[in-house]
Amino acid sequence: MGFIQGIIIGVAVAMDAFAVSLSIGLNRSVRIYNKIIFCFSFSFFQFIFALLGGISGFLFNKYVVCIPSIVGGVIVSIVGIMMIKEGMEKKEGGFLLQKGMYLILGISVSIDALVVGFTALNSIANLYLLIYIAITIGVITFLFCGLAYVLARSLKKVEFICKYADYIGGFVLIVFGIKMIIL
């Protein structure tokens, strides 16, 4: 596996974090500080899960292929439902700002990186190359999350989107979670 394949894998697994970051960015109560922590959380877990998956993939490849997608999809869908509920209640400082959400969402959007590690990165014999590809995945995820927040800032200027941001973000997460479960 080379650098280009590592970038392609990084872009592919960063899409989950991008979608979740876009939804988070549309939330009115989330500040720049929170967004930075989410970026670091998502990119760290993408890196660490890709690395762990690559190292231990040959042991678990037959047993864990479909389960992580289901677990991640359920978690992301639950967060989407919670966002819609928060939008209905119209209270400030919602659940996304609770410290545990950085960990929960970081892990849930990174489960696919673990699967990629199990299936695609487990054949890399050179540990340094594996670490390099895992770092590449983490950096790409960080950049994609930042891009999602910039895009969300622009989308919030549209009155309709700003008014219904919690509902839109929640709906996107629910659909994305269902997609993770089904596919």
Proportion of residues in extended strands: under 5%
H-E string: HHHHHHHH
**Uncertain ranges:** none
Structural class call reads mainly alpha
Major β-sheet annotation: none
The first-to-last residue Cα distance is: 25 Å
Mean pLDDT: 78
What overall form do the CA principal axes indicate? elongated
Helical percentage: over 70%
Whole-number total of structural domains: 1
Pfam family, one: Mntp
Protein name: Putative Mn2+ efflux pump MntP
Organism: Clostridium amylolyticum
Keywords: Cell membrane, Membrane, Transmembrane, Transmembrane helix
What does this structure look like?
The protein has helices at 3-25, 32-60, 67-89, 99-108, 111-119, 127-155, 159-163, 165-182. It is mainly alpha-helical and 183 residues long. It has one domain (3-182). It comes from Clostridium amylolyticum. This is Putative Mn2+ efflux pump MntP. InterPro entries: Mntp/YtaF (IPR003810).
Write the layout of secondary structure elements.
Blueprint: H1 3-25, H2 32-60, H3 67-89, H4 99-108, H5 111-119, H6 127-155, H7 159-163, H8 165-182
Helix pairs in contact: 1-2, 1-6, 1-8, 2-4, 2-5, 2-6, 3-4, 3-5, 3-8
Q: Which properties best describe this structure?
A:
183 residues; mainly alpha; 8 helices; elongated
Summarize the structure.
By secondary structure, this protein is mainly α. The protein has helices spanning 3-25, 32-60, 67-89, 99-108, 111-119, 127-155, 159-163, 165-182. The protein starts with a helix and ends with a helix.
